[in-house]
Amino acid sequence: MDANPNTDTASPNTDPKAANRARFELELEFVQALANPFYLHSLAQQNILEQPAFINFLQYLLYFKEKDYARFIHYPHALHHLELLQHAQFRSQMKKDEFLREYLHQKQFDHWRTWREPTSVNSSNPEGMVSEEPDAETKPAL
Known about the structure:
Layout: H1 16-33, H2 37-45, H3 52-60, H4 67-70, H5 77-84, H6 88-96, H7 98-114, H8 118-121
Helix pairs in contact: 2-6, 2-7
């Protein structure tokens, strides 16, 4: 049975709304991939970060920093790395310095490990020490 190219189903090429959605999803997926320092290093090793067209594309993707688009980002480090990629010095350093890749990875890991720990949020108890005095709930009733 031959496929009929004139079917009623709209393809992304003919439906502008579907095409915009597909493009947005593709760009969102790429921006989120930038959260991975190993991916950034790979792009640098392949000289992709030196291509003027790619640099322009990275600048275009800054729209994800706007509130209406940032809400779709699941990995906030992606936006940080996107901002760093706007700088030629960072792009060139990423290519030749594996230490930078490891540093970004470690900082990211440390953030994910501690971002919800009460001790890192509670500034009144900076070292995470347990108070010597028990809470009112744990005190025995007199």
